[in-house]
Design brief:
Blueprint (H helix, E strand, L loop, with lengths): L2 H10 L14 H37 L12 H17 L4 H27 L12 H30 L12 H12 L8 H32 L5 E3 L2 E4 L2 H18 L1 H11 L14 H17 L3 H25 L2
Helix pairs in contact: 1-7, 2-3, 2-4, 2-11, 4-5, 5-7, 7-8, 7-9, 8-11, 9-10
Length: 336
């Protein structure tokens, strides 16, 4: 992107995701903003996860299929039918408690650390800039930083989630519950076992969050320019930049969700396979690394294996991400 185009985007790329920091906020206001990020991010994350969880279950089951021919499931629809026939709707929502908690942690952490990263850039690199609005490239960097931080919190939660989502016949823990899985992980691998698959989560979250926030901010900027050019009414508040209509927020959020999930999907596939392996394999000297799992999957199934389940993931990411951003932006506007 050229400097002139980026500058145009940055001028009109105002949203509640970018704090209005033309003047320094007192510490009490900064604390309030942080609490809003945590509270509103948690609510929007839980709503988004409730919408997408059955599709996420199908995705994990497709990703974690054993390396046998023929495969257990021929595709997403076959996996959905097979799972629903055997386990019902409860099976598709099996283990949802940990992901709901994880969604609240993940989304609140993303929005919270995204705002912190923006404030840090304004206090350092862009300290001499009178306009508080950051260019798009800086917002992408802030998204990457927020994803890297969030990955440390998310890996243990996703480890439990993935173990609960695989079919009972292939799970490495019998009588699956979050407590039994946590106990098994600690028994076999200790505290650091909860970060098994961390590299995959780090790659997915760092790159994915850069694409997530970058896509949302970029599309929002384009929509604001379109609204201003065509004279469409845009809601504004004193001291706060223009707010997009809800449907445009959801459109930008849907694009962000697709960008997040598609670009770095292979890292998520490798992570899921690592986090659904048998805990006891460590005693047999079989515990694998991220690169070993990725190389084996590439040799066995090629690019199709790395992107197995991507279609259903992207399909569920669009509405989920749309609701996340719309709810978050709506709550911030309501309580501003």
């Amino acid at each position: 992107m050229t400097e002139s185009v980026e500058r145009k985007l940055s001028v009109s790329n105002d949203s509640t995701l970018q704090p209005n920091s033309s003047t320094a906020l007192p510490k009490s206001s900064q604390s309030l903003e942080a609490l809003k990020d945590i509270a509103f991010g948690s609510i929007s994350g839980i709503i988004g996860k409730t919408i997408e969880y059955p599709f996420d279950t199908v995705k994990v089951r497709l990703q974690s299929q054993p390396d046998t021919i023929p495969l257990r499931y021929s595709g997403p629809l076959d996996c959905f039918r097979h799972s629903f026939r055997i386990e019902g709707i409860a099976g598709l929502y099996r283990g949802v408690s940990a992901p709901l908690f994880g969604a609240a942690i993940e989304t609140s952490s993303l929005f919270f650390s995204y705002r912190l990263a923006q404030n840090a850039l304004r206090a350092t690199i862009y300290s001499s800039q009178q306009d508080a609005t950051l260019p798009l490239s800086a917002l992408v960097a802030c998204g990457a930083a927020s994803g890297a931080f969030t990955s440390l919190l998310l890996t243990p939660i996703e480890l439990v989630k993935c173990q609960m989502q695989v079919p009972l016949s292939t799970s490495s823990v019998r009588g699956v519950s979050p407590i039994s899985i946590i106990s098994a992980v600690y028994h076999h691998h200790g505290v650091f076992g909860f970060w098994h698959g961390q590299l995959g989560t780090l790659i997915r979250e760092t790159g994915g969050s850069a694409a997530w926030f970058g896509s949302y901010e970029g599309v929002s900027a384009l929509l604001r320019r379109y609204n201003q050019r065509d004279g469409h009414p845009v809601a504004t508040q004193a001291g706060i930049s223009a707010t997009l209509p809800v449907w445009q927020q959801m459109l930008a959020g849907a694009v962000a969700g697709v960008s997040y999930n598609f670009i770095f999907y292979p890292a998520d596939t490798v992570k899921s396979r690592m986090q659904t392996e048998d805990f006891s394999s460590v005693f047999k000297g079989q515990r694998t690394t991220f690169w070993a799992v990725g190389q084996a999957l590439w040799q066995q199934q090629g690019i199709r294996g790395l992107y197995r389940g991507c279609g259903i993931t992207v399909g569920r990411a669009a509405p989920s991400s749309a609701f996340i951003f719309a709810v978050y932006e709506g709550l911030r506007a309501w309580f501003s």
